[in-house]
Write a structure and sequence with these properties.
Chain lengths: 263, 539
């Protein structure tokens, strides 16, 4: 039987007063994309920080690919890419310095992969961290987590601060990583938009909008990925129509804008 | 923004500067009675020596009036220094209010509540003014406490005058910094304000020596501060000078408020267009990022350069001033027992060894504390977590930190040692080269001593670390400097970390002290490594 990519056994972190994480048993198999849902204060970040060895569990254990997360924290981190819930404050360092600092510290980072990630998210590494918008800080965090092509990605609220197009790009990247063998563990604060998130991740589905209980989207090509994404959701009505002339116009210009600009 | 909230934001500044002002006025007034002598002749001789000494420093601070009296002495020794101290407080506080709070998003939150921009800015000025009133009052109480201990008194009108004068100067510096911050980009605002304030300070102080500058000194608020010396008998309280300080503070506050109303939050009033920028997608190729300790030093390169150059320049300045300071002081019979405590061989080497290397210890402790403050900040702002998400052990992080501090301290100590050696040769002060090297290198274990205690405190009390360590360094310094003057018992000197350093320039290395420093550093880092392994990051 293959060893679990991530497992916890009765993992507990007791902050007192009933706060913390209690007796968590979890098994995530290799190449699985595991969404970890819960409201604020449910213990998602506590779980992640225990697995990353940042905080010591009160009891229980956590393992990554069979390696003890506390005892062999360094070995664990060789195989993990981590995006914290709050991006660290790097002050006046430039993006390229931050990536070089952590890339050299870790070793084995391919600059071409970094360039590819920056291209995908349109991230300029020449700017200082303090000049980045919150979305660009999040993109930098994503680059730091993915740059060494890790076996396991641990991502705490990864789409926080990203615009819809970058969210789609992020989910596309996740699919590629999973297809190339990585396991993904990602947390979300709120489960109410999960069908929406699943739809955003679905192939050929764009322009996902949620208005109370009505979700609209645009499907390019087959409906199968959309229907897969809605599996398990309570769908009361499904309406489909052909695109209007205006929508075709907008779609055309969006595709044009993704092409490189002429000199 | 409420006035009370504005006060809350400056509470640590108020507490710290009030305590410092009280300690300085109290020590200067008590110290005066310790060294002035008992007979009118001794007092007159003391006054002459102080006037002679002050004449060497008029390029920095105004000449005293009647330094043979407690009022004149405290006005000169404490309140002249307060001009610099309160200007620095005003600079730091005004930058925090004008731009620092913007970077933290606090200003946007305040403005989102419907508070007018002018109200927000004026409230911060009033908050600082209230804090300053507390600090100058506490400083006056320090004078009163010191003087009443000797059964003398200083008129309440003199104390009120000197306090109002200091308050006016602080408010003027605060408003000026507020104004400069409206026009400078956030990352340059502190430097721009500091340059303006330093320029105005030097304009006034240098105009005492350079006649061509005297026509321009009306521009400097420090000029109006100097016009009043109400503590000294026969000194004056210049009403027009004080009015000029408060008036210019009010005008600059209004102009700053108007500028704040017209600029974008987070940007200066006049924005310089950004030059076309080539988008970068690749990591930095500088090879220093590969080498564990080198990357830490490289990341701190600007700070290390400032510390190295600053300490070396101060060392050179102290060597230049040594003869000018020592000559007038040696003429005072009442100071001879004090000099006898540390003069073992040559007068000037002994003086440099005690005064300069005593101060250099405080500076190197300050360097170590600055590094410890960075460790504490890295823990709270997530950088330590980012480092530990890489395959590097906590022990490895600690070893790298310690090595970076050690090499940084070595660079600072070596540069200052070389600078002092070269300048002392130029000043014909004969220093033993071997002992100068020992005295300079001995600053490194002193830095490690403070860094190790800091590493321990960061694991136990991260938020209080800098305050506790800074307090320990200051108390250690004052114990070594003041215990001989006040005839404190010898065991009090054992409480000072700097007692371990000894007098290496005049008496050679104190092996016992060195061994204790090394043991404390080794044990401190070893225990902090254990604590680091066990504690939660960010907690």
């Amino acid at each position: 039987m293959a060893v679990a990519a991530l497992s916890t056994s009765r993992l507990t972190k007791d902050y007192g007063g009933g706060h913390g994480l209690f007796d968590l048993d979890l098994v995530i198999h290799p190449q699985q994309v595991f969404g970890y849902l819960g409201p604020n204060g449910a213990g998602k970040t506590t779980t992640i920080r225990c697995v990353m060895g940042m905080i010591r569990p009160t009891s229980g254990s956590a393992h990554v690919f069979g390696i003890d997360c506390m005892r062999d924290a360094v070995e664990v981190k060789k195989r993990v890419g981590y995006l914290p819930g709050d991006i660290p404050q790097f002050g006046g360092m430039t993006g390229k310095e931050i990536v070089a600092y952590f890339g050299r510290m870790r070793g084995g980072v391919d600059p071409k992969r970094v360039s590819g990630l920056c291209d995908r998210f349109d991230l300029d590494l020449g700017r200082r961290f303090r000049e980045y918008s919150s979305g660009n800080k999040q993109k930098l965090g994503i680059v730091l987590a993915f740059m060494h092509a890790p076996d396991l990605l641990i991502l705490d609220e990864p789409t926080s601060g990203l615009d819809p197009l970058n969210q789609q790009e992020f989910y596309r990247l996740l699919r590629e990583e999973r297809d190339s063998g990585a396991t993904v563990f990602l947390s979300f604060a709120d489960g109410s938009d999960i069908p929406e998130k699943a739809m955003r991740r679905a192939e050929g589905v764009t322009d996902v909008n949620v208005d109370d209980r009505i979700v609209t989207c645009t499907v390019h090509g087959s409906f199968a990925p959309l229907l897969d994404a809605l599996h398990g959701a309570e769908v009361t009505n499904l309406v489909s129509r052909e695109p209007s002339l205006e929508e075709m116009f907008l779609e055309y210009y969006r595709e044009r804008s993704e092409l490189p600009l002429l000199p | 923004m409420s006035f009370l909230y504005s006060l809350r934001l400056t509470r640590w500044g108020i507490a710290g500067f009030s305590a410092l002002a009280f300690a300085l006025t109290l020590l200067q007034s008590i110290g005066f009675y310790q060294i002035v002598g008992h007979t009118p002749a001794e007092r007159a001789a003391f006054g002459r020596s102080m006037a002679q000494l002050a004449a060497q420093f008029t390029v920095l601070i105004a000449a005293p009036i009647r330094p043979d009296t407690v009022g004149g002495y405290v006005q000169w020794r404490a309140y002249s220094f307060f001009a610099i101290l309160f200007a620095i407080w005003a600079l730091v506080s005004a930058y925090g209010a004008a731009r620092g709070d913007e970077e933290r998003g606090l200003v946007e939150q305040v403005l989102a509540t419907g508070t007018a921009r002018t109200d927000a800015l004026v409230t911060r000025v009033l908050g600082f003014a209230a804090g300053c009133v507390v600090a100058v009052t506490v400083a006056a109480l320090g004078v009163e406490a010191g003087v009443s201990g000797a059964h003398e008194s200083i008129g309440i009108d003199s104390l009120a005058g000197v306090s109002v004068n200091l308050l006016g100067l602080a408010l003027c510096c605060y408003a000026l910094t507020m104004l400069v911050c409206q026009f400078a980009a956030s990352r340059y605002a502190t430097a721009a304000s500091a340059i303006v304030l330093l320029g105005l300070f030097l304009l006034n102080s240098l105009s005492r020596q350079l006649d061509q500058l005297s026509a321009w000194r009306w521009l400097s608020p420090f000029r109006y501060y100097d016009l009043s010396q109400p503590l000294a008998p026969g000194g004056t309280f210049d009403v027009r000078g004080v009015e000029a300080l408060f008036g210019s503070a009010a005008v600059m506050t209004v102009v700053a408020a108007v500028a704040f109303s017209y600029r974008d939050v987070g940007s200066p009033l006049v924005r310089i267009p950004v030059a076309p920028h080539h988008v970068l997608r690749e990591p930095d190729r500088n090879p220093v990022w590969r080498v564990p300790v080198l990357r830490g030093l490289y990341e701190r390169r600007a700070g290390l350069a400032v510390w190295t150059i600053g300490v070396a320049l101060l060392g050179v300045l102290m060597v230049i001033l040594t003869k000018n300071i020592v000559e007038p002081l040696l003429g005072l019979a009442q100071l001879r027992p004090y000099f006898n405590l540390f003069i073992t061989s040559g007068i000037y080497p002994s003086f440099l060894g005690f005064i300069w290397f005593g101060f250099a210890q405080l500076l190197i402790a300050g360097y170590a504390i600055a590094q410890v403050a960075r460790w504490s900040a890295e823990d709270t702002d997530g950088r330590l977590e980012a480092v530990l998400s890489n395959p590097i052990s906590r022990r490895g992080v600690l070893i790298e930190r310690a090595t970076v501090v050690m090499i940084g301290a070595l660079v600072v100590a070596a540069a200052s040692g070389v600078a002092v050696g070269i300048e002392s040769h130029a000043q014909s002060i004969d220093l033993n080269q071997g002992r100068l090297i020992s005295a300079s290198l001995l600053l490194v274990p002193m830095a490690m001593f403070f860094a190790a205690i800091g590493a321990l405190l960061v694991s136990l009390l991260p938020r209080a670390t800098v305050g506790l360590l800074g307090g320990f360094a200051f108390v250690s310094y004052f114990i070594v400097q003041l215990a001989p003057i006040f005839h404190w018992p010898s065991w009090t000197q054992d409480l000072s970390a700097f007692h371990l350093y000894g007098q290496p320039l005049s008496s050679g290395v104190d092996i016992t002290g060195l061994v204790i420093m090394l043991i404390v550093a080794a044990v401190g880092f070893a225990v902090s490594a254990l604590l680091m392994e066990r504690r939660d990051v960010g907690a």
